[in-house]
User: Fold Pyridoxal phosphate homeostasis protein from Porphyromonas gingivicanis.
Amino acid sequence: MIQERINEVKALLPKDVTLIVVTKNHGIEEIWEAYNAGIRDFGENRVQELMSKVNELPQDIRWHLIGSLQRNKVKYITPFIHSIQSVDSLALYEEIARRARLAHRQIDFLLELHIAQETSKAGLPLIEVEPLIKTIMEREKDAPYMRLRGLMTMATNTNNEEEVRGEFRKAKELFDYLRMGIMAHRPEFDTLSMGMSDDWNWAVEEGSNMVRIGSYIMGARSY
Assistant:
């Protein structure tokens, strides 16, 4: 079933869109099934759960931390994490940079935007993104192991298609504005991660080039 769902999604995704399979609350055997179907990009929301899985699975997996990250847990994932998609403050950036230096690893990261109506969702207000990027760029000489790859966001949890599309559109407009502006000389700034199980098709149509799909592929989670 997992392989069938992966094949279905891949058939619908444009070739330039990266599929991250989210494995929160799914076991090792299920992840192996997705791995054997060709998936190498996996997303996890919690550091503790990720740490319980990483040593049980192949080392060529690219792990993406997509949930909120506390600074005191950064040290656990820097030795192996491929990207951190939930950077939403200068303090978190600085801690990841410090740990990346100690680990002698380059770590990709995305800035998380808050575009949803729910106040419970994490992320930066759109107006704060460019100032934070400017501050990060000023400190790059002190953080050579960090690489800003783009933006990540989650839309409001609603069936209102126009509302969701409108939020994705705002994120895409900001992404394009940054790419043509202060990040114009940074070709590595190339990732707009938006779209999950319920709205990934809308996200892709609005310009996403990375989707994070969990239950649509992996099935209902075991809590």
Remarks:
- The longest helix spans residues 161-180.
- Strands lie at 18-22, 41-44, 62-65, 83-87, 107-114, 146-154, 191-194, 210-213.
